[in-house]
Amino acid sequence: MTDTAIRSKLDALARDLKAYHKALLNFARGEYEFLYGPVKNEFELYSLVMNHESFQWLRPLSGLMATLDDVLDTKGMQLTQRNVDDVQGALGLLFSEADSRFADFRAGYTRAKGDAAVRETEAKWRALLNSMEA
């Protein structure tokens, strides 16, 4: 794949991961509101996401997405299959039972994967990622 093709696919992946993250965030918000009552506004939600343990499990995915955005925003950077491999590897680790660092993420994901929006958005980014295999 050329730099342009890789950039286009990684841009699409970043968009799909944002939709997936939003679906997971909405699920986490629902769990939070069940336990603690309604979130009053987006500012309160932002504060909760940044500080409350109920949203902590989302942070590894948030960090991965921020790193991907940084790579895509770096001016003049030539993207290669290595960048694709790095994203595939990072996502693989996030979902791998073998890596204990992301056990909290996987526990949250296990709770959320029954949600229709989570399933739909996950299917999109996974299909795109699979299409990027070398």
What's the structural blueprint in terms of helices and strands?
Elements: H1 3-36, H2 42-51, H3 59-73, H4 81-95, H5 103-112, H6 116-131
Helix pairs in contact: 1-3, 1-6, 3-4
Provide keyphrases for this structure.
mainly alpha, single chain, globular, 75% helix, 134 residues, 6 helices
Structure in words:
By secondary structure, the chain is mainly alpha-helical. The chain has one domain. 75% of the residues lie in helices and 0% in strands. It is globular. The protein starts with a helix and ends with a helix.
% residues in beta strands: under 5%
Question: What is the tally of helical segments?
Answer: 6
Helix content: over 70%
Task: Tell me the Rg in angstroms.
Answer: 16 Å
Overall form = globular
Distance between the termini: 9 Å
Q: Residue ranges: pLDDT <50 for 5 or more in a row? A: none
H-E order: HHHHHH
Largest sheet: none
| Count of spatially separate domains | 1
Give me the count of strands.
0
- Protein structure class: mainly alpha
How much is the average pLDDT? 95
Nutshell version of this structure?
With about 130 residues, the chain is mainly α. It has helices spanning about 5-35, 40-50, 60-75, 80-95, 105-110, 115-130.
